[in-house]
Write a structure and sequence with these properties.
Blueprint: E1 2-8, E2 17-20, E3 34-39, E4 42-47, E5 49-53, H1 60-76, E6 109-117, E7 120-129, E8 141-149, E9 152-158, E10 160-163, H2 177-190, H3 199-206, H4 209-222, E11 223-226, E12 236-237, E13 245-247, H5 250-259, E14 265-270, E15 276-283, E16 290-293, H6 300-318, E17 321-324, H7 333-344, E18 354-358, E19 375-380, E20 387-391, H8 409-414, H9 427-439
Parallel strand pairs: 5-18, 5-19, 11-17, 17-18
Antiparallel strand pairs: 1-2, 1-6, 3-4, 6-7, 7-8, 8-9, 9-10, 12-15, 13-14, 14-15, 15-16, 19-20
Helix pairs in contact: 3-4, 5-6
Protein name: Abortive phage infection protein
Pfam families: AAA_21
InterPro entries: ATPase_AAA_core, P-loop_NTPase
């Protein structure tokens, strides 16, 4: 369960961005869609969903990109560039794209995350010097790094490496650690690498591979960040698949029928010696059936839904946090509202799954669908070009700017009560074009 994510100097977010899924205080009458977890007799709460609004180029996608970049850096364990040319989030691979492009100084880039998994409250952060924007050959350096477990500091790196409460993770330490603690600490302190995260290297190898595995598993399998959802294509793999076989999944086809597909089935076709399967439309014209690539027959919205639905299932069944860039593009709002309501349904969402996405569709600005603290905004300053982020709950409920539960959020948004909206008028461009045409 994700509780909080922070970053600073990440692209348009020059100042610190705090993206919180911790319920805001004093939200009376809004007891729904709150996840609860007890750890060591202390109770923690998290929101099960959030929707992000803002005009084009405001920085909405940069929030999701920052999460994806953080995840990528941690899992590979260093701040060197990656050679993955297929990643739609180029900044996760080419880190010189991260610093704010208008900054004249070499300001640090920082990341922080707070989440719960396997009955542990985990807080991990690091800051790095990546140089200026597009400074490719700059000698990068990790400036600080910190790990807390259940509110207790485990280690802190800030020029030098210090350890605190290793007793908190005593059951997760490597075998015979107590006998070798002093030498392990001395070795770790003397072998820090400026470009490598201590968590994923020295700490993993000498202190607790079990704890790092818990953190890595959550990042890799439960923190599902989909950057540029329009470029996502789900590839299914089968162990020892039969050649020229068609695999039809019952759950996926049932969902497709509810979505509106009724004239054919959907399945995955394995061709040749590959264990990868391609999504196809299956027609039952004869006993064998005919399969053609889905993109040749299905609509773009249908393919997007079919690619996305297994991720929704995965999140709900395994307690994952699904973060998607423009989750709603080309998918009917009624289908999305139902998915959102499922995440809000305590009877179904038993594993503390979460759904976060950005959108331009105002239909989700609905007090019957989202709590005030689940509605987020991103606005970009026209003078500094820096992005800022805030929630509807930040307006409070009293005074002239207060927002109450029975208000029309959509109407208020379009009359610019909440910001994060821009008046756009292309008329002058066409007036000039027409004027030029008359002259010609």
């Amino acid at each position: 369960m994700l509780l909080e994510f922070k970053t600073s100097n990440y692209k348009s977010f020059k100042e610190e961005l705090i993206f919180s899924l911790i319920p805001a205080p004093k939200q009376k009458g809004l007891d729904y869609s709150v996840l609860k977890q007890d750890i060591n007799k202390k109770s923690y709460k998290g929101l099960c969903s959030a929707v992000i609004y803002g005009s084009n180029a405001s920085g909405k996608t940069n929030i999701i990109g920052a999460m994806d970049t953080f995840k990528s850096i941690v899992l590979r364990g260093n701040i060197r560039n990656d050679d993955d040319k297929n990643d739609p989030n180029t900044a996760a691979c080419e880190l010189e794209l991260i610093p704010n492009n208008l900054s004249e100084n070499r300001d640090p880039v920082s990341f922080f995350i707070k989440f719960i998994t396997d009955n542990y409250l985990i807080e991990y952060s690091f800051s790095v010097d990546l140089g200026k924007f597009l400074e490719v050959d700059y000698s990068r350096k990790i400036l600080s790094e910190q790990l807390k477990i259940n509110d207790r500091l485990i280690f802190e790196r800030n020029g030098e490496l210090k350890f605190d409460s290793l007793d908190t993770i005593s059951t997760l330490l490597v075998n015979a650690f107590e006998q070798n603690a002093d030498s392990a600490i001395a070795l770790a302190q003397g072998n820090l690498n400026d470009e490598e995260l201590f968590l994923m290297n020295g700490f993993k190898n000498m202190f607790s591979s079990k704890l790092v595995q818990i953190i890595s598993n959550w990042l890799d399998n439960k923190f599902m960040v989909i950057y540029r959802a329009d470029s996502m294509h789900l590839i299914r793999k089968f162990s020892e698949p039969k050649k020229e076989s068609v695999y039809v999944e019952k759950t996926l086809n049932e969902a497709a029928v509810y979505f509106g597909i009724s004239s054919n089935a959907l399945g995955y076709v394995v061709e040749g010696d590959s264990n990868e399967a391609k999504l196809c439309s299956i027609f039952k014209g004869d006993k064998k059936g005919t399969a053609i690539p889905a993109e040749l027959f299905e609509s773009y919205g249908t393919i997007r839904f079919i690619n996305m639905f297994p991720l929704v299932v995965n999140a709900l069944m395994n307690g994952g946090t699904l973060v998607v860039d423009e989750f709603d593009a080309s998918i009917h709002p009624m289908a999305l509202m139902n998915i959102i309501n499922i995440f809000h349904n305590d009877e179904i969402n038993r594993n503390h799954a979460q759904l976060v996405f950005n959108t331009h569709n105002p239909i989700f600005l609905n007090a019957n669908l989202y709590r005030r603290d689940e509605i987020k905004f991103v606005e970009r300053d026209e003078d500094t070009h820096y992005s800022s982020h805030y929630s509807l709950s930040d307006f409070g409920t009293t005074g002239k700017s207060g927002v109450r539960k029975n208000e029309d959020y959509m109407k208020n948004y379009f009359v610019d009560r909440y910001g994060a909206i821009k008046d756009i008028d292309f008329t002058p461009i066409f007036e000039e074009l027409i004027s030029r045409g008359k002259e010609v």
